[in-house]
Amino acid sequence: MAFFQNLLGDPVGQTAVVPFAIGVAVALVLALAGGKRFAALGIGAAFFAAYYLIHGGVPAFPPAATAQKMFYVAAAGLLLGIALDAAGAARGGGHFFAFVVPAAALAWMRWPQIAAGPAGALIATLAALFFASIVVYWRQAASARGAETDEASSAALFPAIQLLVAGLGLGGIALLGISLSLGSLAMALAAGAGGYLLASFIAHLAAGRGFGYGAIGAFGGGGVWLALAYAAVFAADAPAKIALIGVVALAFAVDFVARPLALLVAAGGAPAAARFLQPVAYGAVVALPPAAALAYAWFALGWRMN
Q1: Report for 88-102, 114-128, 214-228: range of highest mean pLDDT
Q2: Is 34 exposed, middle or buried (0-12, 13-18, 19+ CB in 10 A)?
Q3: Domain that holds residue 112
Q4: What backbone torsions phi and psi does residue 218 show, to the nearest 5 degrees?
Q5: Assigned domain for 114 exists
Q6: What is the CB neighbour count within 10 angstroms for residue 76?
Q7: What share of the chain is helix, strand, coil (3-state, %, to 5)?
Q8: Is there a domain that residue 306 lies in?
Q9: Alpha carbons 306 and 98: distance in angstroms, whole number
């Protein structure tokens, strides 16, 4: 009992061990219960469990601070994803809400500044975040296309790989130069994505099909990452920090190149080899922007955790 109490109170347990375990457990339980298409719920569950542990509860509503609003933006995204997948409306609804959700979230998070008469810099920032959000949702949905076929079955794992590396990159930048709280939450999101990804990867190796990702993954995983990125951008006190968050976000855009390249790996060989090597190759490519951002922050800028 004392071990679990210490684990829940330890920063490493809160940001890595617990969310990873929840990501694995929820995905496996749902898959075994016949709800494989809802398995990505483990990612959102891991994030909110970590938030509760790190902050000792949930923020009051209505929230006053931007970081508190981030929690409710993330929660709304997860609930939306569940509703869309449950209704079988992930495709059409996802296209619509990919535009509506970021517009509403950004307006709400910055409403006091907008109501006071936004400056040009704020308008530019909001516009950049909105268009970046469209790319993130687009690639979260599009990277898995064709995953129901043998030739592209590995693509089922690609959205979670994007989320894993982008979460690690955002978490690292935030921990080094923006906010320990936001950094810890981004790391927890990455850990939850890693747990889900491990379970889905094992299923893919064994049976040739990974777990579902769907709107729950896109809005309750990718959408949570966006909520954290919004809060990190608004909390950043230097243009270089915002720029590095932008570099991390390129992990989603690099999918344009990473997806076709990864699916070529071992494509003409044994199916088992392709199942194993294609996700690894994909991860190596999409991890380049976050890795570059972290390396620049550490070596060139000399950022260190206090």
Answers
A1: 214-228
A2: exposed
A3: 2-300
A4: -65, -45
A5: yes
A6: 18
A7: 80, 0, 20
A8: no
A9: 37
Mention every residue, 6+ apart, whose C-beta is less than 8 A from residue 15: 50, 54, 184, 185, 187, 188, 191
Q: pLDDT tens digits, residue range 31-56?
A: 999 888 999 999 999 999 999 999 98
Look at the block and give the residue holding tokens 């457990």: 25
Flag whether pLDDT at 306 surpasses 60: no
State the total domains in the chain: 1
Structure tokens at 142: 């599009």
CA-based torsion, 281, 284, 287, 288: positive or negative: negative
Q: Which tokens belong to 24?
A: 């694995």
Identify whether 305 is part of a domain. no
Q: How far is CA 301 from CA 27, 168, 172, 305, in A?
A: 39, 19, 14, 13
Decide if 50 is inside a domain: yes
Cis, peptide link before residue 279, omega less than 30° from 0: no
Phi-psi region of 38 (alpha: psi -120 to 50; beta: other; left: phi over 0): alpha
* Alpha-carbon dihedral 269, 275, 277, 279, rounded to 10 degrees: 140
